[in-house]
Write a structure and sequence with these properties.
single chain, alpha+beta
């Protein structure tokens, strides 16, 4: 396995050569993902296979990582495992993208080379949840007996409505 992946790749050229890329990308190098992470230490393991199926240039592969995201309930770190399968059809136009088989997502390559980290980061951002949360219920308010008693006594008195407040003001003549 390569320790260092290339920064830029030419997907069409790699597909013609039936290229294979295996290696790791540091999490701290993924700029768009950094805002969502509690901790950016660690790596993403990448395994990509380029090839052709008839006239279709394709990229298939696998991405694995464990990200530390911020739980949207308790605001603590939650470990989020990523185990993503990639299946992309390399296209140079929207028209080609519309003709891709259903099980392929388009990888639009307008110029020859693209940033490999952007390709990986796009795939990760697509599978991350909008609101990551712990699997267990982490946002349970903790009460002691005194606060529970005060809550119960508050519930027994009828709530004041805006109209009842106005009626009191009218009766006292402060209105």
């Amino acid at each position: 396995m390569l320790d260092r992946l290339p920064e830029y790749i030419d997907p069409l050229h790699l597909a013609d050569k039936r290229g294979v890329l295996k290696g790791q990308i540091p999490l701290r190098s993924l700029d768009r993902l950094a805002d969502m992470l509690v901790n950016d230490t660690g790596t993403i393991t990448v395994e990509l296979f380029f090839g052709r199926e008839g006239r279709l240039a394709k990229v298939e592969g696998h991405i694995e990582a464990v990200l530390e995201l911020e739980c949207q309930n308790c605001l603590e770190a939650v470990k989020w495992p990523i185990d993503c399968t990639i299946k992309l059809g390399i296209v140079t136009s929207i028209d080609q993208a519309n003709r891709l088989p259903e099980d392929y997502e388009p990888l639009l390559v307008e110029e020859g080379k693209i940033l490999l980290k952007n390709l990986i980061e796009d795939e990760i951002l697509l599978i991350l949840p909008a609101f990551p949360k712990h699997q267990h219920s982490c946002f349970v308010p903790k009460f002691d007996n005194n606060s529970v008693d005060s809550l119960v006594s508050d519930e027994q008195s009828p709530p004041e409505t805006p109209f009842s407040i106005l009626a009191k003001l009218k009766n006292t003549g402060d209105l």
